[in-house]
């Protein structure tokens, strides 16, 4: 028979898969091809097919070498995990394999650590051990005996391999690992096979495991490895025994040694880890939740299986927590097997179970399935404790939907107590299908501290840009995915992109998607199927919701149009109610059913973490990055404009009129209105947009937010004229409201012009109604404020009579006219008549609106003012205190400030300075906080005007205080009034108050003085004199203040407090032309600044000091000092961002630096600096800056002189020609600037 007709010493042709005892495993086709070339017999080439087990993804070639049948396994890919899976599949298909050889190419260490021999490309390394260096494992040397005499040695080395899942491409890392673990070669598959079979690694060098990799040596290396492998097999002695399927024999562990070295290794049975992601060495935060999961396993009840869920929005870090937990579990529970299962779909879950089966080497019976087999293996306590991590369980149907076998996937999750299950999900009901509700951990965005720590792992920052870092993580909503992406983006783009610049770009809405979706930032610790950009990560959830819950998707699309905070139900239910009203009677459900439908839709969004319910239960919020993602999705699918239009119609109808009784609702809806008014709408929606803008503008004006109201109504007025025409009633109404705001901002001339034009339009159109009469009344108010009392009186009186006839005496416009007549009487000094008008107005308003209306509040303030002007101080005080007690308005509303200012003046007139001081201090604090320009904002700051009425009296009292005993209350009052005026830039008005306080202080006895109190006053008075260019008096004040500071102990003697004083003194002396005296003061200011902590320094202030100091030292001939100071000033100025002034300052400092070098006769250095400066200034000139400020002519002149000094006449001549072009460019820029100014 042919079966027995074979060479002596060669194996019989195998009958089935049980006849193979040796496996050769190759990761690359090239490697396997070389092994095939050295086969003595190639059974596969002869057409003999042996098949393989179910689920085996390897490719095989069968053959013979020497006395053994050999099966060559081609892996489906490279890496240790795939090698382990491939080896497990080999064991399943060829159960009698006794030894595996991993053959192919590797990277080597250039010099053998023991012999110091040079190892070159093509040399072969035979393993004596393996270190899995990416996990810190080391596999032992073991077994097999070989006769070394018959092995050819084409430069063969014996030693330990390093094995990892990734290619080593760093010479530095190679040398460190080789030294630490005593390695001479590096590869990727050996450690994976080592777990499954007794193993020899035979690989030849194709590179040096560094960054210089190429494929030139791969073929030769694979060939030498195959040759050495054949030589080893020809000397291999395996125990003789007969095997068959019916008579299995336990195979003793083979032994193979070569030159006394153990070559084959096999670890003892150990836990199996299927974790597809490397550990994040920079993992930060989330310690509490990781510890809770570990504690759950540590304290697990023997008969109870731990199941826990991690639920949260996409990008919040669920999978990252699970990865860190897996590695922490491996450390604290080394006997636990860990299996990471991606469970986004049923098919993916089955595939992961199949890989698990291969990895743990489970044989699948013919009548069984992968799911059943893995379930039984996991249920068997003999296989040790395990933890399943089910990642991305986002579809709530995957584990509860019936399969063809009648079961659901949830049935294939064992409940054995030696196991545990961790679930990550975006959708809470999906997690709840597998985990009890009380063991679901909802993962929220990080805290500020955690977010900053996470950003710090990707990007270095310190306290100098700590504020920018804090703002960045807040802008990103403390979302880990977004923070990591931003940090990586900045790190990748440095130095052109800094943290501050990235933040500035991110503030602009049109940049946000581009920045957060930047490509090239792949996260290796996210599954490839979900490794999306920041905004698109939520598209998975939304697309699923759109398919499964279309009404919830519609609701969320609409919600995304509003501001992401405090989205009240009234916004959404309004649109839902419209849909309900459009249904037929048969389709309409009851209100309860409708409410339930709405709640169901909200619940879907909440469970997917797209929406969160606020504590009141009736309003919602959306994470800002989720909202950005949703808007981008709608834009990509051309649905954005439709939802924006719906949101506009909803809010235009819902936003109240803006009058006092609606303020609470206006305040609640204002953020949504601001958001919607940023959208671009089609022309057919103009009226809805104008309606909303008008309501918002009126409310902002009534609430005292004049600047924002002016911006909104100005835009609305222009839009109304363009879309509706100048004569349209809506245009006229909006224009009137716009003029009111201008009037309140004390922009009387503009307001008067608009009011007159609008009133004329009403006359031309022959319209006389509430709007036209209101316009005339408001015009009267504007004229009165402008001092045109007679014209205002005539107009308001006529309007008052027409209003009574047309609208009636009770109408609010008629009542407003009464108040205006009271103001006219008050302006004329007819206080009793004014009081009568105010009281009549109040009686009408009480009947119409009740005692707590804001109109009554304003009128009572006016009565209090006229009572004060009539010296009825007690009556005025009682009335104003009643207003204070009523607590109708916020204490910082402009009308509240008005009545408090009147009360302060009443107190001053009563010499109750202590009480007046309390009010003025509060008002001053509010003024400083809001930064209101009081000189142009009379309505908001009428308290200041009222306070000034007492100026003469206070100054006379100050003079009395000098002669008599000092008055501490008056002393403080003068200080507060001086502060008020000084903070508003009214230095001329502030000076007498500040001077009066200083005079009282100097008149005190030495024992009664508190010099520390007077220092701020002296400094402000010095600044007031400086602003008036009274430099001598300013120097005197700063010197007095400095003398007090230098004689005192404590913080007032040092730091930025004294820096301001010394720098101001130096400035005054410098501007007097006294450079000699100014120079030491300026130097001292610089020294004080430099001694401060970084967070206390003010680069802008020290820059101006340095610029003065450089001129001062130049004046006294210290040019080398001038050079140093200029260099530092230039460095500081380049780091600042001050728009046009930055370029101008750089030009000035550069000029001074050039001058210092020239003055020191350092012409070679001067030439280099001047050439660079001239080139830079030409660029600034081309950008359109003022040629005179750039000072380019002087730089060119100095460069010309420098070239002449260096005897470079030809270059000097070229410069003169170039200078002609520069002069032409200067002329062009000046003409352009003149045209712009014109």
TrEMBL record:
Residues 573-586 have a biased composition (Basic and acidic residues). GO terms for molecular function: ADP binding; catalytic activity. SMART domains: TPR (SM00028). TPR repeats lie at residues 1015-1048. Residues 573-592 are annotated as: Disordered. One of its GO terms (biological process) is nucleoside metabolic process. Keywords: TPR repeat. Residues 307-455 form the NB-ARC domain. Gene3D superfamilies: Nucleoside phosphorylase domain, P-loop containing nucleotide triphosphate hydrolases, Tetratricopeptide repeat domain. It holds the Pfam family TPR_12. Residues 546-636 form the DUF7779 domain. It comes from the Eukaryota. InterPro entries: DUF7779, NB-ARC, NLR-like, Nucleoside_phosphorylase_sf, P-loop_NTPase, TPR-like_helical_dom_sf, TPR_rpt. PROSITE patterns: TPR. PANTHER family: AAA+ ATPASE DOMAIN-CONTAINING PROTEIN-RELATED, ATP/GTP-BINDING PROTEIN-RELATED. This is Kinesin light chain.
């Amino acid at each position: 028979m042919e079966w027995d007709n074979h060479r002596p010493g060669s194996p019989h042709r195998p009958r089935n898969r049980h006849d193979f005892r040796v496996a050769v495993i190759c990761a690359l086709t090239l490697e396997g091809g070389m092994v095939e070339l050295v086969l003595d017999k190639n059974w596969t080439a002869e057409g003999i097919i042996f098949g393989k087990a179910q689920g085996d993804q390897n490719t095989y070639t069968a053959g013979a070498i020497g006395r053994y049948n050999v099966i060559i396994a081609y892996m489906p890919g490279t890496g240790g995990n795939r090698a382990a899976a491939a080896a497990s599949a080999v064991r399943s298909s060829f159960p009698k394999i006794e030894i595996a050889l991993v053959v192919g190419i590797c990277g080597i260490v250039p010099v053998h650590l023991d012999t110091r021999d040079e190892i070159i490309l093509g040399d072969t390394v035979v393993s004596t051990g393996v270190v899995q260096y990416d996990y810190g494992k080391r596999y032992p040397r073991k077994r097999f005996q070989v006769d070394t005499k018959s092995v050819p040695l084409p430069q063969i080395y014996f030693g330990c391999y390093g094995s990892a899942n990734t290619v080593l491409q760093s010479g530095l890392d190679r040398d460190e690992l080789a030294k630490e673990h005593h390695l001479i070669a590096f590869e990727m598959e050996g450690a994976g096979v080592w777990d499954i079979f007794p193993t020899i690694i035979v690989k030849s060098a194709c590179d040096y495991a560094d960054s210089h990799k190429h494929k030139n040596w791969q073929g030769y290396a694979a060939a030498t490895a195959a040759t050495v492998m054949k030589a080893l097999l020809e000397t291999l002695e395996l125990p003789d025994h007969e095997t068959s399927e019916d008579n299995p024999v336990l195979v003793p562990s083979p032994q193979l040694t070569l030159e006394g070295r153990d070559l084959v290794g096999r670890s003892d049975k150990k836990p199996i880890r299927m974790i597809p992601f490397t550990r994040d060495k920079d993992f930060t935060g989330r310690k509490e939740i990781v510890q809770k999961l570990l504690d759950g396993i540590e304290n697990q009840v023997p008969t109870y299986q731990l199941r826990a869920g991690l639920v949260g929005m996409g990008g919040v870090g669920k999978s990252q927590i699970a990865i860190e937990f897996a590695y922490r579990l491996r450390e604290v529970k080394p006997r636990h097997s860990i299996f990471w299962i991606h469970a986004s779909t049923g098919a993916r879950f089955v595939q992961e179970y199949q890989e698990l089966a291969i990895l743990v080497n489970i044989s699948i019976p013919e009548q069984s399935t992968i799911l059943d087999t893995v379930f039984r293996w996991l249920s068997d306590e003999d296989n040790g404790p395990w933890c399943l991590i089910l990642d991305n369980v986002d579809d709530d149907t995957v584990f509860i939907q019936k399969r063809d076998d009648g079961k659901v996937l949830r049935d294939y999750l064992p409940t054995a107590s030696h196991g545990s299950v961790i679930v990550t999900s975006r959708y809470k009901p999906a997690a709840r299908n597998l985990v009890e509700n009380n063991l679901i951990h909802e993962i929220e965005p990080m805290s500020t501290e955690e977010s900053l720590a996470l950003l710090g792992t990707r990007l270095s920052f310190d306290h100098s840009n700590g504020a920018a870092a804090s703002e960045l993580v807040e802008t990103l909503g403390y979302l880990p995915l977004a923070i990591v992406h931003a940090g990586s983006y900045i790190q990748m783009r440095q130095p052109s992109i800094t943290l501050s610049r990235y933040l500035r770009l991110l503030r602009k809405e049109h940049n946000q998607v581009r920045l957060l979706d930047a490509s090239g930032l792949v996260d290796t610790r996210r599954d490839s199927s979900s490794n999306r950009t920041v905004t698109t990560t939520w598209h998975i959830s939304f697309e699923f919701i759109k398919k499964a819950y279309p009404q919830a998707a519609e609701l969320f699309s609409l919600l995304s149009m509003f501001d992401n905070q405090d989205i009240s139900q009234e916004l959404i239910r309004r649109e839902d109610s419209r849909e309900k009203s459009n249904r037929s009677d048969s389709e309409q459900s009851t209100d309860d059913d409708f409410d339930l439908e709405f709640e169901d839709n909200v619940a879907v969004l909440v469970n997917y973490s797209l929406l969160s319910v606020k504590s009141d239960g009736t309003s919602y919020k959306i994470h800002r990055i989720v909202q950005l993602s949703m808007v981008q999705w709608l834009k990509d699918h051309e649905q954005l404009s439709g939802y924006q239009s719906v949101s506009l119609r909803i809010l235009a109808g819902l936003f109240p009129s803006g009058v006092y009784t609606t303020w609470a609702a206006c305040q609640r809806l204002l953020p949504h209105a601001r958001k919607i008014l940023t959208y671009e709408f089609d022309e057919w929606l103009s009226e809805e947009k104008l309606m909303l803008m008008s309501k918002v503008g009126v409310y902002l004006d009534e609430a005292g937010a004049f600047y924002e109201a002016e911006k909104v109504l100005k835009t609305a007025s222009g839009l109304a004229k363009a879309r509706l025409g100048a004569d349209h009633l809506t245009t006229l109404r909006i224009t009137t409201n716009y003029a009111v705001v201008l009037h309140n901002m004390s922009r009387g001339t503009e307001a008067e012009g608009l009011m007159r034009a609008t009133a004329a339009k009403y006359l031309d159109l022959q319209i006389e109604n509430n709007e036209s009469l209101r316009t005339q009344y408001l015009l009267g108010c504007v004229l009165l404020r402008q001092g045109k009392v007679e014209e205002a009186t005539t107009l308001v009186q006529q309007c008052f009579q027409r209003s009574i006839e047309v609208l009636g005496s009770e109408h609010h416009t008629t009542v407003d006219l009464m108040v205006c007549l009271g103001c006219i009487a008050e302006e004329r000094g007819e206080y009793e008549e004014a009081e009568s008008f105010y009281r009549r107005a109040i009686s009408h308003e009480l009947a119409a609106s009740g005692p707590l209306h804001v109109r009554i509040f304003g009128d009572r303030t006016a009565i209090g003012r006229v009572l004060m002007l009539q010296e009825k101080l007690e009556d005025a005080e009682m009335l104003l205190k009643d207003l204070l007690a009523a607590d109708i308005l916020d204490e910082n509303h402009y009308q509240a400030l008005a009545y408090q200012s009147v009360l302060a003046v009443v107190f001053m007139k009563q010499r109750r300075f202590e009480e007046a001081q309390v009010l003025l201090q509060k008002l001053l604090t509010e003024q400083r906080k809001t930064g209101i320009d009081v000189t142009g904002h009379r309505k908001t700051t009428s308290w200041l005007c009222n306070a000034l009425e007492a100026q003469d009296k206070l100054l006379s009292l100050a003079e009395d205080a000098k002669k008599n005993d000092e008055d501490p209350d008056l002393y403080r009052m003068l200080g507060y009034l001086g502060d008020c005026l000084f903070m508003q830039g009214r230095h001329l008005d502030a000076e007498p108050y500040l001077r009066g306080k200083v005079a009282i202080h100097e008149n005190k006895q030495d024992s009664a003085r508190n010099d520390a109190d007077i220092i701020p006053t002296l400094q402000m008075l010095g600044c007031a004199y400086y602003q008036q260019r009274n430099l001598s008096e300013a120097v005197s004040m700063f010197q007095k203040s400095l003398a007090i500071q230098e004689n005192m102990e404590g913080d007032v003697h040092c730091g930025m407090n004294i820096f301001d004083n010394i720098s101001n003194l130096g400035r005054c002396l410098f501007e007097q032309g006294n450079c000699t005296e100014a120079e030491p003061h300026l130097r001292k200011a610089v020294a004080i600044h430099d001694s401060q902590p970084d967070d206390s320094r003010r680069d802008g202030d020290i820059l101006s000091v340095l610029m003065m100091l450089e001129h001062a030292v130049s004046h006294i001939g210290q040019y080398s000092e001038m050079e140093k100071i200029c260099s530092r000033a230039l460095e500081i100025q380049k780091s600042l961002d001050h728009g046009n002034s930055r370029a101008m300052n750089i030009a000035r400092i550069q000029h001074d630096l050039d001058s210092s070098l020239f003055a020191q006769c350092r012409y070679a250095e001067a030439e280099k600096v001047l050439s660079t400066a001239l080139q830079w200034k030409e660029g600034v000139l081309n950008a359109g800056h003022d040629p005179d400020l750039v000072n380019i002519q002087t730089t060119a002149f100095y460069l010309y002189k420098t070239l002449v000094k260096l005897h470079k006449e030809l270059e000097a001549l070229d410069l003169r020609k170039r200078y002609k072009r520069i002069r032409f460019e200067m002329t062009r820029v000046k003409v352009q600037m003149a045209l712009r100014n014109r």
